Amino acid sequence: MGAPPVAGDDEAFHEALRRDDPELLYDRAPCAYLSTTPDGTIVRVNETFLAWTGHRREDLVGRRRFVDLLPVGDRIYHETHYAPTLRMQGTAREIALEVVCADGRRLPVLVNSVLDRDEDGTPVAIRTAAFDATERRRYEREMLATMRRAEESEARALQLAQTLQQTLIPPAPPHIPGLDVAAAYRPAGDGRHVGGDFYDVFQVATDDWVVVLGDVQGKGAEAAVVTALARHTVRAAAVDHASPSDTLRVFDQVLRRAETERFCTVVLVRLRRRDGVWRATVACGGHPRPLLRRPGRRPEPVGEHGSLIGLLSEVRFTDTEVTLGPGDALVLFTDGVTEARQRRGTLYGSGRLEDVVDEHRGSAADVTEAILAAVMTYQRDDARDDIAVVTVAVDGSPAA
Amino acid sequence: MDAVARHRIRVSGVPDGQPIVFAHGYGCDQHMWRLVAPHFEDAYRVITFDHVGAGGSDLASYDPERHGSLQGYADDVLAIVHELGLEDVVLVGHSVSAMVAVLAAVAEPDRFDKLVLVGPSPRYIDDEGYTGGFSEADITELLGSLDSNYLGWSAAIAPAIMGNADRQELGAELTESFCRTDPEIARRFAHVTFLSDNRADLAGVTVPTLVVQCRDDIIAPVAVGEYVRDAIAGAELVVLDATGHCPHLSAPEATTAAIAAFVGR
């Protein structure tokens, strides 16, 4: 039976195939090829491998194991990963190794191996093909280096954000004689980003304190800059301006002149004690009004709405003064509380907040923690916005 | 998560038999024992598991601090022993797990009946008067070698490199294959393993110990096996006529016989 009739290019192709005997296919294959005993002793190797590595056949066959041709690091990898994989799976593919050439140069290769077994399943031989991977290795190294740099830079950014956040929130509110103050802060999501909520409690004079709580629009470094500006400006302005609304007015002017598009909402409470009685003056700048809770009465908002800070050419702020007796409490909070939302559900809202404040009449810490816990539970521990709460309660039970 | 799920623990053999726990070495997982462990199922309660970071373990349980030393891995083994309520344990540790076994047995000698250390090395790096087989530069080179294979291990990136249909199948195969290790954990584990020095811990072993060693092992040479035997009071050494670092794979019958002869006494 003769060859089927062919013509033109097909004929030349088939002729080439006929001349390409198995020996040539093996020795001149475009990959390095070697066979070893199951323990790795080289029994056969092709011309391509010898040409690539400069080794002489007589130095390898029967004398060296494949693992002997690897640098030390690859030997460990070979013994701990490659050899076990080959034994157990019968094949190992795309293992990246380097072969030490005769002149000491290293040839990066990608190695595929198969383990041949006899009829009883006993390993007989390992056949290994190695592909020159010089360019690919360079590419992968660059890729890996880029990835590591990105990871490092992300880690640095995270650390910076957390350090910054720590400087914006006081570790614990100061102790004010006669008052019970507690604060809670929880950044949105996984806490990796600098949030915009802040609070501060500081003393201006004897029996004269300021509590400020606010929310800078946005997140990240620029929000942090505005937060820092807010804290410092409010502290400075409060010294010169007894009235909270005047303090907010100064802060508004400073923020509008600052090189930022960010605006902010703030609630400011000035607490002064005269003749043993605490008076609180409340001013809001675009911020939810704080809750005032008195013994035996349901909590209700106190103060008047004011303008957003840093946005408008004309602003209006109002001072509201209340007297705080024993057992009274003021609860300041950000919209991360009232606007907490369940997935596709309704907002947490002021009604639920008032319920929690109504039900927890213990210490300031008690009601503060109860609010945080209730809001976190409501949104199933997935806070989309920062949450800040500050509670100021007057010590003692109400007079009988 | 409990230890059983964390380490993908497998228990077989005789339920009320003496427990024999097989701990795998660096670079692979509990499948390494599949040619040896089944031979003990007739008489023992056989337990295999994956170290955290290896094989089917829960990667989220990896704790850089806890697993920053071999003691952390030993504590994992003790947690397994406690959770399963094992007493009179025969603990078989290969490679780095040989030293993990030593640390576990030093911490709670009463829990263990016998130790079998396969290819142990208390220190891989040469030191004055000690031949471990490697220099610190060699270990740095190993980490480079792990990097070279990082992308090959990283299933998420793998399909993007070759961009052909065959690659997708390979990616899946790698993901499901034996000896799977998270690349970043493998790097850290390499540090912990190959930079460890547990020579001083050997003297603390009071449990009867067998050292099983290949005649030709570039990772733990015979001299190291002899060192371990000499450092543990009453320890015995069996040198197998096998090559490589994994006699339980390359010479499973001889390895099984050596372990069985020792633990069956």
Labels describing this entry:
heterodimer, A: 400 residues, alpha+beta, five-stranded antiparallel beta sheet, B: 265 residues, globular
Q: Mind sketching the topology for me?
A:
The complex is a heterodimer of chains A (400) and B (265).
Chain A (H helix, E strand, L loop, with lengths): L8 H11 L2 H6 L4 E5 L5 E4 L1 H7 L3 H4 L11 H18 L1 E10 L5 E12 L5 E10 L1 H35 L10 E8 L10 E9 L2 E9 L3 H21 L3 H14 L6 E11 L2 E9 L5 E3 L6 E2 L18 E5 L4 E5 L1 H4 L10 H11 L4 H15 L8 E8 L6
Antiparallel strand pairs in A: 1-2, 1-5, 3-4, 4-5, 6-15, 7-8, 8-9, 9-10, 10-13, 11-12, 11-14, 14-15
Helix pairs in contact in A: 6-7, 7-8, 10-11
Chain B lengths: L2 H4 L3 E4 L4 E6 L20 E6 L20 H14 L5 E6 L1 H12 L4 E7 L17 H13 L1 H4 L4 H5 L2 H12 L6 H12 L4 H4 L6 E8 L5 H10 L4 E8 L3 H4 L1 H12 L2
Parallel strand pairs in B: 2-3, 2-4, 4-5, 5-6, 6-7
Antiparallel strand pairs in B: 1-3
Would you kindly provide a brief summary of this structure?
Chain A: This is SpoIIE family protein phosphatase. The complex is a heterodimer of chains A (400) and B (265). By secondary structure, chain A is of the alpha+beta class.
General description of the model:
Chain A: Residues 93-145 form the PAC domain. Chain A: It comes from Cellulomonas fulva. Chain A: Keywords: Hydrolase. Chain A: Residues 18-70 form the PAS domain. Chain A: Pfam families: PAS_9 (PF13426), SpoIIE (PF07228). The complex is a heterodimer of chains A (400) and B (265). Chain A has helices spanning 9-19, 22-27, 47-53, 57-60, 72-89, 134-168, 220-240, 244-257, 335-338, 349-359, 364-378; strands at residues 32-36, 42-45, 91-100, 106-117, 123-132, 179-186, 197-205, 208-216, 264-274, 277-285, 291-293, 300-301, 320-324, 329-333, 387-394. By secondary structure, chain A is an alpha+beta fold. Chain A has a five-stranded antiparallel beta sheet, sandwiched between helices. In chain A, helix 7 (220-240) packs across helix 8 (244-257). Chain A is elongated, with a radius of gyration of 38 Å. Chain B is an alpha/beta fold and 265 residues long. Chain B is 40% helix and 17% strand. Chain B contains twelve helices and seven strands. Chain B has helices spanning 3-6, 70-83, 96-107, 136-148, 150-153, 158-162, 165-176, 183-194, 199-202, 222-231, 247-250, 252-263; strands at residues 10-13, 18-23, 44-49, 89-94, 112-118, 209-216, 236-243. Chain B has a seven-stranded mixed beta sheet with strand order 1-3-2-4-5-6-7. Chain B is globular. The N and C termini of chain B lie far apart (37 Å).
